[in-house]
């Protein structure tokens, strides 16, 4: 199980890991500094949410654990694990088309609206860690 016991941590490769879907009660960590940005995470069994500098980055329902989360100019890349299938919403550029890959396979192209949010369902039940990549 890849839960992040610290709730949010910086990895040696410059990525971050966050979330603990095994928690029964909500936990949060604020003002976590990484690469010049301030992060805030809220997580527990039914929801995991990440903000960077007060802006939306990631949310899953139910809660998940995310490792190796990397943001680039063209999208995001991460591993996600959870006890159940999850609806994941990611904050990206507004009015932009992205291709979404789950476990290396394209699940199609999706566009963000004016909010810049993109939602994708990921089958996590009994799957262990699942690789998700979103590219412009």
Structural notes for this entry:
The chain has 136 residues and is mostly beta strands. It contains no helices and 13 strands. It has strands at 8-10, 16-18, 27-34, 37-44, 47-52, 55-61, 65-72, 75-81, 86-91, 97-102, 105-111, 117-122, 130-135. The strands form 2 sheets. It has a 7-stranded antiparallel β-sheet, with no helix packed on it. A 6-stranded antiparallel β-sheet has the order 3-4-5-6-9-12, with no helix packed on it. The N and C termini lie far apart (31 Å).
Shape: globular
Percent of residues in β-strands:
over 45%
Major sheet description: 7 strands, antiparallel
Say what the CATH topology is. Answer: Chondroitinase Ac, Chain A, domain 3
Overall tally of domains: 1
Q: How many individual helices?
A: 0
Kindly state the number of beta strands.
13
Order of helices and strands: EEEEEEEEEEEEE
Helix content: under 10%
Structural class: mainly beta
Rg (C-alpha, Å): 14 Å
**Mean pLDDT, rounded to whole units?**
95
Q: Segments where pLDDT lies below 50 for 5+ residues?
A: none
The second-level CATH architecture is Sandwich
Strand order of the biggest β-sheet: 1-2-7-8-13-10-11
The first-level CATH class name: Mainly Beta
